[in-house]
């Protein structure tokens, strides 16, 4: 798997429908195409026959809570519930890591906390009539596993406007949202109850850096990319309603949970390490 933001630029608008021109289908393609079907009723098609065949096998047009097996590829397309009331959907994802002995117990503990944070963020700002869509793909011959989630929420730009005075609209909202403390402010404004810390995107960014994986976060036409070669901002040629997050997890790079959370607590100016558990 290559770390590239080009996956996000393989979508073309044709006669007001969405066409995906990718040669190799990844979860980010699946959730975006699924969202077009579910959220707007517009047609969404893959232009390459091989990609279309594989996408149909992944049930991209109607995400279901099932596994599909295609050779060495293991994929799970998950249609999430209308509200977040526990972490059972997170457990479905973690089962892939644990059953295949990816990472180690400590890294999986950190990842599970981070996924719970991310899911809570999506539900806090999503359209409850149209819950988030998630797809997980495990390439057996690859060192990476990918998780992608899309929603039809208010979007990151609007979320920042609600909590930041004089929000600098000309800057990349997705990059700002990953800064220390920003998502905590959003969480305090949340209308739903949660036991999570409110630092979801910052946790995610720091975990991806430690794990040497990839983070892609985009909303409207802004995209923030954090990969081993560095951070970058990408302007997308289309306006995406809501938010999409793509995580590429390095299955060979473990993270020591106590060291990770102690470092996070120091960065958050005195927050107690115990608050994370």
Provide structural commentary.
With 277 residues, the protein is of the alpha+beta class. It has a single domain (64-276), classed as Heat Shock Protein 90 (2-Layer Sandwich). It contains nine helices and nine strands. A six-stranded antiparallel beta sheet has the order 4-5-6-7-9-8, sandwiched between helices. A three-stranded mixed beta sheet has the order 1-2-3. A hairpin with a 2-residue loop joins strand 4 and strand 5. The protein is globular, with a radius of gyration of 18 Å. The model is unreliable at 68-72, 185-197 and 270-277 (pLDDT under 50).
Topology, element by element:
Blueprint: E1 11-14, E2 17-20, H1 27-40, E3 44-46, H2 49-57, E4 66-70, E5 73-79, H3 88-99, H4 105-125, E6 133-139, E7 144-150, H5 155-163, H6 173-177, H7 182-188, H8 200-211, E8 214-227, E9 230-250, H9 257-267
Helix pairs in contact: 3-4, 4-8
Percentage of residues in strands: 25-35%
User: Strand sequence of the main sheet, in spatial order?
Assistant: 4-5-6-7-9-8
Please identify, by name, the CATH architecture.
2-Layer Sandwich
Assembly level: single chain
What structural class do the secondary elements suggest? Answer: alpha+beta
> CATH class, anyone?
Alpha Beta
Count the beta strands: 9
Quick gist of this model?
By secondary structure, this protein is α+β, with helices and mostly antiparallel strands. The chain contains 9 helices and 9 strands.
